[in-house]
Each structure stands twice: as C-alpha cells, then as structure tokens.
User: Which sequence fits this backbone?
C-alpha cells in the first residue's frame, strides 16, 4: 500500500510499511526493476529523411519544416543557410529533387518544399542583417572564377571559414546562369541582386568584366592566391550541325537568354518563332520568345511525346498554358532561306539509344517537311570554353580533369559546378552546383590546413522508409498550391509567374510534413508507454529517454511513434550466447539523433542575432 | 447550519492532437501518479489506461482498486506503483468502498476537518468486478450520486485469475471458461453485456461515457469531464489484455483504435443535463470486423459464419450511432462474402485432423 498522504499509526508502521519503500516519481518502485523481463529494447535513432538525402546540397529540410511548424521562421532560415546561400533563388528555380523523393508523395501529395524554402528565402531577404557572418580571418586568399551558383556557394562557405575571397567574373554582372539563363519571370533580378549584396556583406570582393584567360592569366591565379576554385560553368551553346545554321534569324538559346538577362539584348523576333530542343532551356526560350513579342511559338523535339522530354513537367505544363505548340519526333536538318531564315527542313527522327554512335537517328528516306518560320532558336545544350586551361588538366570530354574531391591533380586548384558535374552524368541544376561548391570549399579548406581529404560522408543513416512510420497519425491533406498569373496575361510580361506563400500558407504546408525518421517531440511514445518508463526533462526533439531499469520491451512506443525514429534492438542473442543480464540493468538512454543534436544547438544562436540588429 | 463552500478542482480540457495536418499531442501535466516498476504484463492495456487516467487527474487524487490485475499484479509485497493514496477493496465492494471515501470527504469538509479542494476520487474496477461481481455496489454508488468517478477498465474477461469469461467477453471470444469445441464452435455464444448504456439508462443523472486507449487525449478529456461533473460519473474504457486476447504486445494502442473503427466499441457520451447520448465521435476509418479479429488468438477458431455474425452485430452498433453503413460493411455481414476463411464444415474438418 502506498503510504504517501496516509497517516499510519505507530503500531502499524513497523514492520509492514517500514520494509517497503514508497514509490516516487523520480525512482519508480525501486524494489522491482522489471527491465530484466525484456528480450528486446526500444532505442531512439533519428534517421535520414529522404528529402534531405535527395537535395543536391543536403539542406536540412525536415529540420526547417519542423521549425516553420513552430513559427520559428528565423531559426528555420538560419538552418537552411547552413547549406544554401540563397534560398530565395532556389525557392524559385530549383527542380526540387527533394519533392520527388518526399515520402508524403507516396501517401497523397509531396510537401511543397520549394515554396516553403522560397518563403524563408524572402523572409531572409527582408532582414536588415543576415544571420550568417564571415569567419575570423585566417590570412589566406582564395580566388573563385565564375559567379554562378557553384562559385557563389563556394565563396560563401569559404568566407564563413575565414578566407579572403575574390570572385572573378567575365560578364558585366554577377550571377552566372541565375542571371544570364534563368529568365526574370522565374527569378526577378532584384532577388538575385539582394543575394549578391549578402555576399559583399560577408566581405567578398566581386570583380566583374574580369575574364580568366584574357584579363587574368593562369599564372596570375597561381601567384596571387593560396588556392582557386574554378566554377566557370558551360558557357557555349551547342549547334545541331544543320545546313545554313549561320543564316540571319538563327539564334542560340543560351546567348539569347544571357543577353536579355544582362540587359544587353537587341534581339527582334518575328511573328512566328520555332524552338529546337525539348529540355528546360528550350522551354525557357519558347516562353521568353512570347515575352519578346512572338505570336506563335512552336517547339520541335526529337522525343516522341511530352513524357519523354527531359524537362520539369510543371514548367512544360505552364508553357503549354501560355500557348506554345509542340511538334514531336522530328529533327531539323537545314535552315532554308535566302541569307535569312524563311523555313526549316524537318525529317522524322528518334533517339537511337546507342552510346557511341550519333544518338539521333534521322529517317532521310521519308519525305522532307518544310516548316515556315521567321526565327529559329536552337537550345540543345551547352559546352565549356576552356582555351585558357593548361592542356594537362583537360580531359577527353573537353572538361577539367579532377579527382573525386574536385581537385586538379595535387595543385591548389579545384573545380565545381556544371563544369565538374557534366562529366559525371549528374543532372545539371542550380542546387547540385551549390552542393558541389560547398563540398569543394570544404575540401579546399582541408587541403590548405594540411588535413587528409575525406570521402564525402557516406550516409550511415538509414533513409526513412514510409513503411517504418505510422500513417494512422496522418490524415490525408491536399498539397497547398501556389498561385500563378493568368496565362493570357503573363505571356506578355516579365512579371513573376509563380507567386509566393504567405506566412500562414508556409506554416500550413510545413504542417503536412511527416518529419520522416526524426523525432519531433510529438510526445506520443511518452504518452502510450504502459510502465510508464519514457521520460523527458524538457519536451524537445530527440530528448526522450527510456528507463531501461523498467522497460519491459513491449514495443508499443515503437509501433506508435508516428515518425518511425524508434527501433527495436534485441537484448538476447541466442546464436552467440545470452547477453540479457549484461544489458538489462545498464542504464543507457538510447542513441539520440544527429539532427536532434544540431537542432538543440541551434536554439540560442539566432537569438543573439536578433539582439545584434538593434 | 451555515452553508459550507466546497472548493472543487476544475480540470481544463486538453486540445486535440490533430492540428490541421499535424499530429502533436497537447502539453501534458508533468505529474506522474502511476510510476514504473509494477508487475503487469508487457504492453498491458489496463496499465496504459491507468497511467493516462491518473495523469489527467493529477496529484490531488485518491484511487480505489477492487481485486483484479490492477490490484494483484500491481501491489505485491506491500508495494504499489501508485504515487497518490490508494486502497484495495474486495472485488464486490468497488462501489460501496468508493462511496464511503466520497462520503467521508463530504463529512470532513462539512465538519471543517478537511481544508482544500475536494479530491478526485477514482475507482478502477475491472470488467469482472464492474459487470458481474460488483455490479450492485457500483449501481448503488451511482444511484446515490456520490461525488466520484467509477471507471470500468474493460479487458473483456477475468484476466487476473487466468482468463475466464465475464459478461463483457464478446461473442466468439475464447477464454478458459469458454473454450471452442464441437458443441459451441464459436466458443462464446452470448453477446457482451451493454454495461455502459445500462449505467446511463439506470442512472441518468450521472455523466457516463465510453473511451478507448486508442484515443488517449479523448480518454483523458472524458476522465476530466467525469471528475469535473458534480456527482457520480462512470466511464467504460477499452483496454486490451495481451495475455487473454493473445496478440503481439506492440498492438495495444492499435487494437484500441481498431475496435472502434470496426464498430465493436461504440464511443459516446451521455449528457446528464440534456439526458441525451452524444454520438458525434467519428473514427478516421470504418473497417470490417475481420481487421480486428485477425490480430487476436482468442478469435482464431472462428468460422466464416461467426465472423459474419460479428459483422451483423457491429452493423447494428453503427446504426445505433446513426452512422450510415457503407456497402462493403453490409456485404461483409453476408457469410458468402467473408473471404479467406473456409465454410464452417471445411474449417471443422481441418480442426478435427489436428
Ligand atoms: C537557360 C537555362 C535555364 C536553367 N534553369 C534552371 C532552373 O530553373 N533550375 C535549375 O535548378 N537549374 C537550371 N539550369 C541549370 C543551372 O543554371 C546550372 O546547372 C547552374 O547555373 C550551374 O552553375 P555553375 O556555377 O556551375 O555555372 P554557371 O551558372 O554557368 O556560372 C558560370 C560563371 O562563370 C563565368 N565564367 C565562365 N568562364 C569564365 C572565365 N574564363 N573567367 C571568368 N568568368 C568566367 C560565367 O560568366 C558564369 O557567370 C538552367 C540552365 C540554363 C542554361
Ligand atoms: C469475491 C471474489 N471472487 C473471486 C475472486 C478471484 N478473483 C481475483 S481477481 C479476479 C478477476 C477479476 O477480473 P476483473 O475484475 O475483470 O479484473 P482483471 O483481472 O481482468 O483486471 C477474480 C475473479 C476474488 N478475489 N473475490
Ligand atoms: S514528409 Fe517531410 S521529412 Fe518526409 S520526405 Fe517529405 S518533406 Fe521530408
Ligand atoms: S512502451 Fe515502454 S515498456 Fe514498452 S517498449 Fe516502449 S519504453 Fe519499453
Ligand atoms: S513518438 Fe513522437 S516524441 Fe516519441 S520518438 Fe516518436 S516523434 Fe519523438
Ligand atoms: S493479464 Fe492482461 S490485464 Fe492483467 S496484467 Fe497482463 S495484460 Fe494486463
Ligand atoms: Mg477484466
């Protein structure tokens, strides 16, 4: 009988009540450590959410969505900034591999991660002062060649590590393809400008109109800097090797977009415009052509149908809405006309699938088709321009020869971004360039500090599978759509097509996140344990502890954890001998998640930054 | 005699854990009147219920425990997991003992011997105690409207003495007193006593409700409503017993949800003011009873026709709650449609060869 709150007469106090200690909240019933009944032990282990894993720069997506759920926007912004210098940019342009990997996509619809990222990016842009600071100067100088996403990311991380960074950019304005590729109606220039300002605030020097190979030589780089990151991208458009490609009215997609982006364009398009190509650049060209005054735009692809086109389906959909017409399974073989394009010669064509031979099979037996047009824009990929690179560092594919850390031999030169990734067959996109820039910055830092280079950390974490989570706790909820401008209106303006989320919308959408494999302090395990032997001193992600003295191993907590971050570990191993008594009484709190640790540390950091604004 | 003012504890309700698309339990009290180290089986449903109930009630609570697992398994060697005053009472006297405690506090307050708020007086009776052996005494306590909360933790059998049938044991449930055999292949042919509705009908001035460990916050809120109600309250709570039901221990909470989703445990509240049942509780899904039955060894002997009979029973419960039946459930009540299970004869033939 519990003696608490009960008056026990002296003659009853001994011996009965005296021999059994009263139970307490702190120690339970000391006499009965029921943990020795257990054959299996629940253990907390946070796992890798699939979104984090799929992101090219491994943003801690689950982490910032969790913070957004709690209304902690500033902390969420600080967390995203660890891996991503410009969430306002990727929040608009990213092809979002994270959303393709999102577990919720298998359940109803993927989380609109990019839209939340954009919300946080815009939130960060509005801050008078960024949350990120340059590291204490370490006295070393690094040059970054190219100011595209890869160069931007490398410079950003190096400045945070304390390097004096100079960016050398051949164009009149910084930004790389973010400015001279991705159109204004996807990424307004003012957004990019603000992110470049943030780089300057970190103490980075940007020298525009400075081309390596012309204004600065390879030897200058070697002499003047301790190390150098080459993030020069792929700046030259590919041709389709058609007859008459040099006629007036033939335009290449990359310079077409670049000149518009840099403000140096004097292009005049006719009424009818044809775009050759079926990728994302071709789509941007077709939609930009409408905005440059074309009335009818046709896109010609070798692919047999829209599904085969190597592009983002949403963008294709938006393009169709704007009235661009698709023609499939054709190749352009000649540009017809007298000095100026009047029509295109088309033949039926398909991809051969061959690796070494020409990948496109053109059926020249079939009758040729004459397709009248005023302009043709060719957008079939791009390649590097590396005349300035010493021959020893060139490879057979026309790019830079690097090792797996992005290093050129044993020099202090590194390469990152499209120029490095094109050879590896990685899809070329902004976030991959950012991730590469980040990793190369860390490799460079290790080399300069004479530390051994490490293989990119293999994720020892298990990537959380939907089957390990408890879906009972997640009723179906539709994904929140972003507003878009009306097609009839937007096709004539440079205004941003896709609108951002409000704070409320970002919060609502973040609420849909399952927190795959990562404790989000929902308190469910704590509430359902029959003993109860799950304790927490504060309610916070990953700070739950199991009193193994008492846990009977029923596994209710494991079954009922919505996020799947509890696992069962056998106490006994009948093959190698019973180990039960060794562990039953050992008080180990279980392993807590890496991510939870990070979030714990984050708690007080941005608060200081809030003070600094005043 | 001067009017005495009785200070009462008014416990606030918990917010729902389903906030939009997000699942996040509300802030729970720090206090832990039920501590670890007790000797119930791993995954014990009644223990889960006990913990939730006592956490909702808080520290100013007195617990009464008639004989059953929550007494015997919990309090051997003069040591209990109860961190608040607790007393055992004989299995048949759950109601009278609890009434006595409540009356004693009323008297002590009247005489000025107890200062402070009226304590939460909670009786935790098993279904054996509440539906059979102690039924009369509990009815008496409810009838006289003592200020207490009587909980029947319903594990649908006499668990502590080794699994015997009680009047709450469902149709088809195997126990040591209702084994399946040639004569009674369904093991138990009687339907469970509709205990909670009986209590509501017979004592309409009381707050009466049903709850399940599958819905912890709902359960804790009903406990608080029962405690806040001035007068007697009665809650019957579904609490699976892995020993008697024969299931994998991790399923304890899951069964608590399934039993409601299958229509076998209607969730409702009786409003003593309006004298009306409130059937507004809706589970996330409606499922055929087989989803619930197949997880438990105590139903392993059932033939298709018994499963169909159970479905008919469940369908009647849905109708009672005013829920429109989906076609699938109507079809599932027809023995021809109960798949994955042979005909009664085929099943018997198999059983005989073993
Ligand atoms: C039209 C188009 C649209 C795209 N849209 C998207 C999109 O919506 N989303 C997405 O994720 N990806 C998109 N991409 C892909 C993405 O832009 C690239 O993968 C990414 O920009 C690569 O970054 P980077 O830093 O490696 O190269 P770049 O962005 O190409 O930057 C290289 C920079 O180096 C400079 N440079 C080159 N040589 C020298 C030199 N010798 N000296 C000094 N400076 C030099 C260049 O001027 C340029 O500024 C698009 C690509 C194109 C072509
Ligand atoms: C008058 C009397 N009859 C029989 C018993 C034996 N007995 C002890 S516990 C128990 C089972 C009680 O069943 P229930 O109330 O449902 O509680 P559970 O064990 O299922 O938790 C019985 C029958 C007893 N203690 N007293
Ligand atoms: S549900 Fe959330 S944590 Fe899981 S993959 Fe999607 S965004 Fe990531
Ligand atoms: S619910 Fe409690 S007793 Fe059961 S395994 Fe988890 S910690 Fe152990
Ligand atoms: S149940 Fe909730 S609190 Fe417990 S480990 Fe899982 S996510 Fe964390
Ligand atoms: S027999 Fe059932 S009710 Fe009794 S302690 Fe075990 S699981 Fe709990
Ligand atoms: Mg019982």
Assistant:
């Amino acid at each position: 009988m519990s003696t608490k709150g009960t008056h026990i007469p002296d003659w009853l106090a001994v011996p009965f009540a005296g021999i059994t200690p009263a139970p307490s909240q702190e120690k339970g019933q000391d006499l009965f450590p029921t943990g020795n009944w257990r054959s299996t032990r629940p253990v907390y282990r946070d796992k890798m959410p699939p979104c984090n894993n799929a992101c090219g720069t491994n943003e801690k997506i689950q982490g910032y969505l969790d913070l957004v759920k709690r209304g902690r926007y500033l902390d969420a912004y600080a967390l995203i900034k660890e891996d991503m210098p410009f969430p306002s940019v990727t929040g608009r342009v990213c092809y979002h591999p994270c959303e393709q990997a999102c577990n919720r996509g298998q359940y109803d619809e993927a989380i609109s991660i990019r839209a939340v990222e954009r919300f946080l990016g815009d939130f960060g842009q509005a801050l008078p002062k960024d949350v990120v600071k340059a590291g204490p100067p370490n006295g070393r100088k690094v040059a970054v060649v190219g100011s595209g996403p890869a160069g931007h990311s490398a410079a950003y991380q190096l400045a945070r590590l304390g390097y004096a960074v100079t960016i050398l950019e051949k164009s009149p304005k910084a930004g790389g393809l973010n400015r001279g590729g991705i159109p204004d109606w996807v990424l307004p220039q003012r957004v990019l400008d603000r992110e470049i300002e943030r780089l300057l605030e970190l103490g980075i020097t940007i020298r525009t109109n400075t081309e390596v190979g012309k204004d600065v030589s390879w030897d200058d780089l070697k002499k003047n800097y301790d190390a150098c990151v080459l993030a020069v991208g792929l700046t030259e458009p590919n041709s389709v090797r058609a007859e008459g490609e040099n006629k007036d009215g033939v335009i290449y997609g990359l310079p077409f977009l670049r000149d518009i982006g840099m403000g140096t364009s004097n292009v005049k398009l006719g009424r009818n415009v044809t775009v050759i190509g079926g990728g994302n650049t071709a789509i941007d060209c077709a939609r930009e052509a409408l905005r440059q005054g074309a009335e009818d735009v046709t896109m010609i692809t070798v692919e047999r149908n829209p599904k085969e086109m190597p592009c983002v389906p949403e963008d294709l959909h938006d393009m169709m809405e704007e009235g661009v017409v698709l023609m499939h399974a054709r190749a352009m073989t000649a540009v017809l006309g007298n000095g100026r394009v009047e029509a295109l010669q088309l033949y039926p064509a398909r991809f051969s699938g061959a690796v070494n031979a020409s990948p496109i099979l053109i059926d020249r037996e079939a009758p040729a088709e004459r397709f009248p047009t005023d302009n043709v824009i060719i957008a079939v990929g791009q390649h590097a321009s590396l005349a300035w690179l010493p021959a020893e560092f060139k490879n057979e594919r026309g790019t830079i020869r690097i090792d797996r850390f992005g290093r050129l031999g044993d020099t202090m030169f590194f390469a990152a971004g499209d120029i490095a990734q094109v050879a590896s067959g990685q899809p070329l996109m902004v976030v991959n360039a950012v991730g590469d820039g980040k990793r190369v910055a860390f490799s460079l830092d290790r080399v300069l500090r004479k530390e051994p280079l490490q293989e990119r950390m293999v994720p020892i974490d298990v990537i959380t599978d939907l089957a390990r989570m408890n879906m009972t706790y997640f009723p179906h909820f539709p994904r929140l759509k972003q507003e878009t401008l009306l097609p009839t209106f937007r096709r004539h303006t440079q205004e941003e097509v896709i609108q951002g989320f409000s704070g409320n919308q970002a919060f609502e959408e973040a609420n849909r996140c399952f927190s795959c494999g990562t404790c989000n302090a929902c308190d469910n395990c704590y509430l359902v344990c029959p003993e109860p032997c799950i304790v927490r001193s504060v309610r916070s992600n990953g700070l739950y502890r199991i009193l193994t003295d008492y846990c009977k191993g029923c596994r209710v907590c494991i079954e009922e954890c919505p996020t799947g971050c509890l696992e069962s570990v056998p106490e006994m191993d009948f093959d190698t001998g019973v180990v039960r008594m060794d562990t039953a009484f050992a008080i180990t709190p279980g392993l807590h998640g890496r991510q939870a640790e990070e979030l714990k540390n984050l708690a007080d950091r941005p608060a200081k930054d809030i003070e600094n604004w005043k | 005699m001067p009017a005495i003012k009785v200070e009462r504890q008014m416990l606030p309700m918990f917010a729902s854990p389903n906030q939009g698309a997000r699942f996040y339990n509300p802030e729970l009290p720090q206090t832990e009147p039920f501590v670890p180290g007790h000797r119930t089986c791993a995954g014990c449903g009644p223990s889960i219920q006990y913990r939730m109930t006592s956490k909702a009630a808080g520290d100013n609570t007195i617990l009464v425990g008639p004989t059953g697992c929550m007494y015997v398994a919990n309090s051997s060697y003069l040591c209990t997991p109860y961190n608040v005053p607790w007393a055992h009472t004989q299995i048949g006297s759950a109601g009278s003992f609890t009434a006595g405690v409540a009356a004693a506090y009323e008297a002590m307050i009247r005489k000025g011997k107890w200062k402070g708020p009226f304590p939460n007086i909670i009786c935790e009776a098993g279904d054996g105690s509440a539906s059979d052996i102690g039924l009369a005494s509990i009815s008496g306590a409810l009838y006289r409207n003592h200020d207490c909360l009587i909980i029947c933790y319903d594990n649908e059998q006499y668990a502590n003495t080794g699994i015997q049938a009680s009047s709450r044991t469902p149709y088809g449930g195997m126990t040591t007193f209702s084994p399946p055999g040639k004569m009674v292949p369904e093991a138990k042919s009687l339907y469970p006593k509709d205990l909670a509705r009986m209590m509501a009908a017979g004592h309409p001035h009381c707050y009466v409700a049903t709850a399940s460990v599958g819905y912890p916050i709902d359960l804790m809120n009903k406990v608080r409503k029962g405690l806040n109600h001035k007068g007697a309250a009665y809650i019957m709570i579904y609490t699976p017993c892995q020993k008697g039901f024969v299931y994998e221990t991790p399923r304890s909470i899951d069964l608590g949800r399934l039993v409601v989703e299958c229509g076998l445990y209607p969730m409702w509240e009786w409003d003593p003011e309006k004298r009306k049942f409130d059937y507004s509780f809706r589970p996330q899904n409606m499922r055929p009873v087989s989803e619930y039955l197949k997880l438990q060894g105590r139903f392993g002997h059932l033939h298709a026709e018994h499963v169909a009979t159970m479905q008919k029973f469940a369908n009647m419960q849905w109708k009672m709650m005013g829920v429109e039946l989906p076609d699938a459930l109507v079809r599932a009540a027809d023995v021809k449609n109960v798949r994955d299970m042979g005909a009664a004869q085929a099943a018997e033939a198999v059983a005989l060869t073993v």
The pocket of iron/sulfur cluster (ligand 5) is lined by residues A 44, 519-525, 544, 561, 563, 565-566 (CB under 6 Å).
